[in-house]
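Q: What would this chain look like folded?
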Amino acid sequence: MLRLKLIVCIVVLLFFLLFLLSMMKLSITIFFQHAQGNNEWKFTFQTLFGMIRYTIHIPLVKIETEPPGVAIAHQETIKNISKGTVKRSKYTPKEIINNFQKMKEFAKHVVRLNEIIKKFLGHISITKFEWQTKIGTGDAATTGMIVGLGWSLKYNLLAFFSKYMKLKTSPFFMITPSFHEAVSETKFVCMIHFRIGHAMLAGIRIVKYWRGNRLSKIRTFVTNHANESY
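A: My prediction, written as structure tokens:
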């Protein structure tokens, strides 16, 4: 009888913790900067009122020609706990194509994946959206044309985000043309929020609508692709 009460208490406690986890909000800040031929990314994940913070910093994304590939340096940091060392890796064109093919294969395995993604996006709130660009080719005519294309690109992306997510801020856009020198610089900052429970629900729906709907098939798919990546 005592053992049964203990099991019931543990189950109730687990459900309570799962409920608390699902109600917690996750904030993600996406930072991208391109300047002087270098690309820098930073992804910051925060929850529990900022007490838990995990950052992935990618200070270097460089296209190399000899041998051809994309060189990436990244560092992972957990607030007040650990700061990882900078790790460098390089992806060949073949590896990049293989990764895209794996993503396509994954999408084929999930029925109604678009609907699942749209529902999840509907729970995401955007609270910061800034995008500044400075661009020029040294020729006034072509610079003006590129600036026009840039404004079109930015407003189309904003229309996409507004359609599928909750835009709760006034976006800040700027494009500064440089008519007398060739320059290409841009800085993008976006902050989004959603409840962890909505991400968990999306994951459950992916499992539910996996073709065949068998956990063993999902496990085999993940294991095979994990082994291929090593």
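The mean pLDDT is 85.
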